[in-house]
Design goal:
This protein is of the alpha+beta class. The protein is built from six helices and 24 strands. The chain has a three-stranded parallel beta sheet, with helices on both faces. Strands 4-5-6 form a three-stranded mixed beta sheet. The chain has a three-stranded antiparallel beta sheet with strand order 7-8-9, with no helix packed on it. Helix 4 crosses helix 6. About 1% of the residues have low confidence.
């Protein structure tokens, strides 16, 4: 054919069209995109084919069958494997009037072929699509995105690779500005799930990160494997494990406390009480208690009734007028969209108007240092920025409420004073090293009372026996 035209090779700048539009697109091979690459390699080996010659690939009609969606995906994937030379045209954008209804819409009519040709020439001449990154594929019908080899599947966004090294994703913002954050958000009609990392200069929570959930139902953290648990680590050290059986356990035995002075649980509800380790194999220096000493101890105790100064701490979320933060302004707008309806075995695309909620965006003209409008490629340069507003930050407010009910117990300072006077160091009380606040272990009173009563009964038996 080239000889008839008096040519020895094709021009490097002339496009070569390839149109996969037949019914075999329904069952297009899952290796079509790489198969086309092999075909392209053979073309490049020919002397009459310039190596960097552009090829425009036109996808099949979506009116023939909804199943050809995969066909478009694989044709587009072939283009993404070599975006510098392969350009994709989605002919599914052509209206139904451009397709031949007498042939089940698989072929275009004269107007359709002309329009498709114009799309092809525009893509080639303007280089539209050449800026796409190789290996990034967007399905022209579902708009699902795949980064990596292959075609988009059922996921809206997927990063795929098969390699021995780690596959990582990152959102970075190294700014030390007080408003700087790095964020990932996942939103549905049920609420917004956000992962936020705050800069070192943040006014409220510097050098911290939060996971926040804005829905009205639970935030569920699940490990669904048969034997999988959820492990929490702090400072690089494993701390707490939620076992698959439902037990919540410390990762290391006898290493951490549940609560502390100044950070107490208001109440602990239990069906069978608490269990304290009492295995003899775990103990050393075992000795019987001195009953007379124990009797002396309990007779000096001063049981008291009292009310808590702070019976409960109520936590509320309020506006903090002293700290303002920026948040995006959102607006409802109408947009042009389309939906595909199926009737009589035909997929008909129908234009619709939808109301969507999105962040408001302002457009600004870019000027140079002299204040003159910047012109690029013969056109004024503009940039867009999300519109924001200043709102009060949120803060936790802790309000202490005085106790109402009457409680019974002992005063730790009095118990300690009795022990000091008797020169015993029973672990009845504990002292916080930071605050000096004292606490008692009520269960330790039980063996003291038992030993005292046993000693007293012995004394009574001796007295009764002697009197007889």
């Amino acid at each position: 054919a080239l000889a008839v035209l008096g040519l020895s090779s094709l021009g490097a700048d002339d496009p070569a069209g390839f149109w996969q539009i037949e019914s075999d697109a329904i069952a297009l091979s899952t290796t079509w995109h790489t198969d086309f690459g092999s075909f392209h390699t053979r073309l490049r080996a020919e002397t009459w084919w310039p190596y960097n010659k552009p090829i425009v690939l036109m996808g099949p009609s979506i009116l023939y069958s909804a199943d050809v969606t995969a066909g478009n995906d694989y044709v587009k994937a072939a283009c993404e494997l070599d975006p510098g030379c392969r350009l994709f045209v989605f002919t599914g954008l052509l209206p139904v009037a451009y397709w031949d209804a007498t042939n089940t819409y698989i072929h275009g009519n004269a107007s359709g072929y002309w329009a498709a040709g114009e799309m092809c020439i525009a893509r080639w001449a303007e280089g539209v699509g050449r800026g796409n990154l190789g290996g990034v594929t967007v399905s022209p019908t579902t708009q699902n995105v795949r980064v990596g080899p292959g075609v988009p599947g059922a996921y809206r966004f997927e990063v795929y690779t098969s390699q021995s090294a780690a596959t990582k994703g990152r959102v970075s913002n190294p700014s030390t500005n007080s408003a700087a954050t790095a964020e990932q958000e996942v939103e549905s009609s049920g609420g917004l799930l956000a992962l936020r990392s705050f800069s070192s200069a943040n006014d409220l929570i510097p050098n911290q990160a939060i996971i926040s959930w804005g829905g009205s139902a639970n935030l569920n953290i699940q490990a669904n494997g048969a034997s999988a648990g959820i492990l929490f680590a702090v400072g690089g050290v494993n701390r707490v494990l939620f076992e698959s059986a439902g037990n919540v356990v410390p990762y290391a035995d006898n290493a951490i406390s549940l609560g502390k002075s100044g950070a107490r649980w208001s109440a602990v509800w239990s069906n069978n009480g608490t269990i304290q380790t009492s295995d003899a194999r775990q103990k050393t220096n075992i000795a019987s208690l001195d009953g007379a000493l124990c009797w002396e101890f309990i007779t000096r105790l001063n049981p008291v009734a009292y009310q808590w100064i702070s019976g409960q701490t109520v936590v509320t979320i309020e506006d903090d007028p002293d700290h303002m933060v920026e948040e995006p302004v959102v607006e409802d707008i109408e947009v042009d969209d389309y939906e595909v309806e199926f009737a009589g075995g035909v997929a008909m695309r129908k234009a619709v108007r939808r109301v969507v909620t999105r962040e408001a965006v302002d457009t600004f003209a870019v000027v140079d240092e002299a204040g003159e409008q910047v012109i690029e490629d013969g056109r004024p340069l503009f940039v867009q920025r999300v519109r924001t507003r200043q709102v009060p930050a949120k803060r936790e407010v802790h309000t202490s409420r005085a106790g109402v009910r009457i409680h019974l117990g002992h005063l730790a300072q009095e118990v300690k004073a009795i022990m000091d006077d008797l020169e015993v160091d029973w672990a009845l009380y504990v002292e916080d090293a930071e605050t000096g606040e004292l606490g008692l272990r009520p269960e330790y009173f039980i063996p003291i009372i038992i030993a005292a009563m046993q000693w007293k009964f012995t004394q009574l038996e001796a007295q009764i026996g002697g009197g007889a």
